[in-house]
Design brief:
This protein is α/β, with parallel strands linked by helices and 309 residues long. It has two domains: 237 residues, Rossmann fold; 58 residues, no CATH class. Helices cover 41% and strands 15% of the residues. It is built from 13 helices and eight strands. An eight-stranded mixed sheet has the order 1-2-4-3-5-6-7-8, sandwiched between helices. The longest helix is centred in the C-terminal third of the chain and has 25 residues. The radius of gyration is 22 Å and the shape is elongated.
């Protein structure tokens, strides 16, 4: 075991899982750290931004290890890097050359946001035949391919022309790839649309917003999705059954309410508000929107009445 630790914030390091007696922790460069914890015959490879762990979280791979008894490989970065870098590429090259992935019956790459989703797709090529589950994955930030992208200005300056760079091409080596996105979120959906092929399954979460990963975490949906993905049973129907849980989520309902114009869509707004108020009678946003919606409905009825006279 290589037990060196980088000079990262102590709360961040404390949240990173220890490798255990049979595992491995390796500092790849100043920005990236890898932790392998052997357990079952399924390996989950997860990518995580360290600052998310400082909020009391654990890596996705570690959570799946605890829940399902899977082996886990967690790749953690200190700050947003989109997991780009020569050392990380060399690390995955080495795993492939050593036959590391061949020692598992199933390999699942997971990424729960734009950055981690990109990495899960891009590095899955190191384990041909793996399964990928990616939430709002960025395809690439190479300027010539994504001139329309207006986010991630600093990260676009990184080297996007080297290997493991264009995620839709890299994921072609996967047996199955599940791409989850919000079709109402412009930039994430454009990236998602670039992932194509008979092995790619697109799953949709309308009105979840750009921070879809937060909603999945709030609803505790990522773990059952990962299990279904590993078993090859994740699809529109099974995801739809899981996604119904959003109806009980204050976070989702607040996002939905924010997307509605109560003056233009008073009926739908009123239904959403009453649903929210049935669960939180003190919700001021719902109270305000319901008042506007009811006023709009009353005005519309008045206009219909006058037109009929």
């Amino acid at each position: 075991m290589i037990d060196d630790l980088p000079p990262w914030p102590k709360p961040m390091l404390a949240a990173i899982p220890a490798p255990g007696p049979d595992g491995l922790r390796r500092v790849l460069d100043d920005e990236h750290l890898a932790v392998f914890r052997p357990a079952g015959s399924t390996l989950v490879v997860g990518f995580e931004e360290g600052r998310h762990l400082m909020a009391g979280g654990r890596t996705l791979a570690h959570r799946m290890e605890e829940r399902e008894g899977w082996s886990s490989l967690s790749i953690v970065n200190r700050a947003r890097s989109f997991f780009r870098g020569a050392a990380l590429a060399a690390y995955f090259d080495g795993l492939t050359d050593e036959g590391f992935f061949d020692g598992f019956d199933r390999v699942l790459f997971v990424g729960a946001d734009e950055e981690a989703g990109f990495a899960a797709c891009a590095y899955s090529v190191a384990a041909p035949g793996a399964t990928v589950l990616a939430v709002h994955p960025v395809a690439t930030l190479e300027r010539s391919r994504t001139a329309w992208e207006r986010r991630f200005r600093r990260e676009r300056a990184a080297d996007w022309g080297a290997r493991y760079a264009y995620a839709p091409a890299m994921v072609d080596a996967a047996a199955r790839a599940y791409v989850l996105s919000d079709p109402t979120a412009l930039f994430p959906e454009v990236h998602a649309s670039l992932f194509q092929g008979p092995h790619v399954t697109h799953l949709h979460a309308p009105h979840a917003g750009a921070d879809l990963n937060e909603l999945l975490r709030d609803l505790d949906l990522f773990a059952p999705m990962a299990v279904a993905a590993a078993e090859g049973t994740l699809g529109a129907a099974s995801f739809g059954a899981l996604w119904r849980a959003r109806r009980e989520s204050p976070l989702y309902l607040a996002k939905l309410l924010g997307a509605l114009d109560p003056a233009k869509r008073p009926d739908l707004t009123a239904r959403a508000c009453r649903w929210m108020l049935a669960r939180d009678a003190e919700s001021r946003p719902a109270q305000r929107a319901l008042k506007v919606a009811e006023a709009a409905r009353a005005e519309r009825k008045q206009q219909v009445r006058i037109a009929g006279e």
